Amino acid sequence: MQIAFSKGKFAQLQFSKITMLKNTLFLLAFCATIALNAQSSNTVSRIDSLTHLFMENTLVKQQIFLSNSDVLNLTEERFNYLTNSIGTSIPFKFDPAVKTQINYMMNPASSFLYKACLRKDLYFRVFEEVLDRKGMPQEIKYLSIVESLLSPNAVSWCGATGLWQFMPATGRMMDLQIDGTVDERKDIYKSTEKACEYLQSMHNKFGDWLLALAAYNGGPGNVAKAISRSGGKRTFWEIKPYLPKETQNYVPKFLATSFIMTFAPPIDEASNNLSAGEMLVPIRMCCPIDMKYISAVININEFEQSEWNSVYKDGIIPSHIENKTIALPYTKAMQLAQWQDSIYQISANAFNPADFIRYETIITSYKVKKGQTVASISDLFNVSSSDVKRWNHLKSNKIKAGRILKIYKSKEITLPISKSTPLGFFFYITENDYQSMNDICARFNEIDITRSCEINRLISPNIPIGKGKLIKIFLKSN
Length: 478
Fold this sequence. Notes:
Layout: E1 2-3, H1 15-40, H2 44-58, H3 68-72, H4 76-86, H5 96-106, H6 114-134, H7 143-148, H8 168-173, H9 188-206, H10 209-218, H11 220-229, H12 236-239, H13 245-263, E2 280-285, E3 289-290, H14 291-298, H15 302-309, E4 316-317, E5 324-329, H16 330-348, E6 357-367, H17 374-381, H18 385-391, E7 404-414, E8 426-429, H19 437-441, H20 449-455, E9 470-473
Antiparallel strand pairs: 1-2, 2-5, 3-4, 6-7, 8-9
Helix pairs in contact: 1-2, 5-13, 6-9, 9-10, 10-11, 10-13, 14-16, 17-18
C-alpha cells in the first residue's frame, strides 16, 4: 500500500504554498539584510527602502478580481497592466481576436467556462504541481479548459481524447498505452505529464510559448510552414495569417481563457465543495481489482469513479498494467491506503450469482391450429413475432393450420453453491437502487436469507437496499 507521489514533491504541496515558501525565505533574507546593514548604516531611509523592496516582492501581486462590466469595458492599458502583474513568460497581447473571445466568454448566455470552474480546484492542483516541477508557466493549466473543459472523458469528433485531447497516434508516440482495456489519454497524471513534455519540446523548438501552443493545436509542421511563408517571422501574431484557421483562433481563445480565469472566474470561490488542501493523488495498487469494491468501501459514487479513473475502460484494473494506480481526492486516498488489504479480501470473497446460473435452450415443436397467426403464437409462448418468423423461415404473419413450428426458449438453471469462504460469509455489492435481498438470494436454496437480513440490518428481504452497497451473504449451516 503506497501513495504514488511525484518525485521530489509531497503531493499536497500546492503552487500557492510554494509561493508562500518563497516569500518566507525572502522575508528571512530581508530581516537578515536589515540586521547586517544596521551595523554599518543604521538609517531610517535604508530600512524604508528594504521594506519597500519586501512589499514589492510579496504584496504587490495580490489577487485582483474584475466584475463583468470591468472586463467588457477593458482597455488595452488596463489589460497590459493586469497581464504584466502575472509575471508569466507567456506573452499576452490585447489583440482584437483576444478581446472577441473575452467578450464571448463573458456573455451571460455563454456557459463555456461554467463546467470547467466546477472542476478546476481538483484538477488544477495536479497541473500546478507538474508545471512547477518542470519550470513551465502556470497559465498552461488553462489549456485543458480550451481542450476539454477539464473533462477526462472528453472525446472530440475526430477521436482526440482526455483532458489534453491526444489523438491516438500522438498518444502512442508519447508512450501512452491505448488498448482494449486501458486508455492512458484519460489518465489524469500521465496525460498531464505527457502534455507538458510535448509543450516543452515545442517551446524548445520554436522559442516562444504562443508558438508552442499553436504547434500543440496545429502541429509543428504547420507552424514551421507559417514561419517560412511569413519570411522568417518568429511570433504568433506575425505568422498568424499563414496558420490553419482553427489554430488562428486557438491561441487567442487560450489567452482569453487565461485572462478570465485569472481575473474574472465565473464561479464564486464559495461554490467549491472541496475541503482545504484537497486534491487528486494517485494510489498505487498491488493487484488487479474491480473498482466497484473500492467505491463501495470508501463510499465513492459511480460518476466520481468514472470521472477520475476512466483510464480503465471496464472499471477493472487489469493485471497486465505494470504501474497500477487510481486517482482519488486526498481524504479518500488516505482511506484506500489504510483499507487496501481489506478491499482485496472483500474481492477475493465476493459472491457472483452468475457463477451459479446457467441457461439451457429448450426447443418446443408446436402444431399450428386453425385461425392462429404468428402474433397469437408469439403471445402464447411469450416470445417475439420476429423471432418466430426467423426460427421458422417465415416471410409473412399468416400461417397455415397444421404446420409444425419450432419455438426456442431459454431456461434458467440454478446450480448448487459449491464455493466456500474462510470468513463464513460472502460479500456482495448491489447493482441497482431497487435490488433487495430476495432479488439477490431467493433463487439459491443454500443462502440463509433471514440471517443475511439480520446481519445487514434489513427489516425485510423485500426492501430495496440501494445501489453500490456492500452487504454480507451467509449460507445455511449444515
